[in-house]
User: Fold this.
Amino acid sequence: MKKLTIGILTNAKNTKLVNTIEAHGHEAKIFNPEKMYMYISEYERGYDRLYFGIDGDAPERITAKSIDIIINRVGKNTEFATDVLKFMVENLGIYCPNKPDSLLKASNKAKTLQILSSAKIPVPRTIVCQKPAHVKWLVETIGELPIVIKKTTGSQGDTVGIVDTKVSANSMCEFIYNSGINAVVEEYIEAESKDYRVWVVGDKTPVAMRRTAKKGDWKSNISKGGTGERVYLNEADKEICIKAAHSLGLNICGVDMLKSKKTGRSVIIEINSNPGTRIIDICNYNVWNDVIKFCEDNYKKGNQKNEIEKNPVENLSTSKEPDIEKNKADGEVDWETINNLPHNIECDKWC
Assistant:
């Protein structure tokens, strides 16, 4: 296996991932999407460029041939980060194991549930709303109290609440109505304050963890004081998790699953395109090894596909692209020369 350059699109250190990349003999590069510049060419053939700024007067150009793989680990500012990832994948042809648009889908709980339902994947009974004026109807349609109310965005259980009385249901719906936020109202599934975090990598589920809420709480998130233990899923649950991930366009993600105490039925409640890594220590299993192996096996196929679709070899021009980074003696770019160049400029990845 040749040495690859693997970029990580992130606003965090991601030490475990970096160390794993290097342990596999590859080079890791961190790119904070907030410091990226996307240059979009005016030419039909295009010579779109990407720049990354840290120090100095000008940002550094990131060429397609300098990055073999880009892995998304974006925890905030998802919308702009998705634009950057989409630019890297679609404009420059850099391989990413996840489809860029899947980040936005996974970051929105309502979109996630809509997609899962359309893919015939079991989810909780849910109502998505913004102005919930019909409280009695809403509760009766969901089933009964208690119910779970969430913002459509948010992570680590920060925007999730349980409503167990008529008074609190009225108060919460009034708050949602007046604030104008988009809300997800779900049936409460009794699962003994437990859920499952399942890592999906390609068509496998290499590691899964059962999380249990701390005493007196019902949120099982590890970040909220919950505890975890490694578990091994049955084939049916593995299939559900893999199908759920792929329905959103994700090859690498964390799938959250509940098992009903009453019926034993498994349902998917959320999908995380940037799952936490505490599972590595809790389960004593480094899932990043599986991720790197998946990328090694698939990056050529992905890059070739993008290049063939966007730049057929027979249509390549022999014209040189303008060197817009080279200034004239007086420090100004020769825009007259650039504007007079033909429009069939080669794309960066063919240089």
The mean pLDDT is 86.
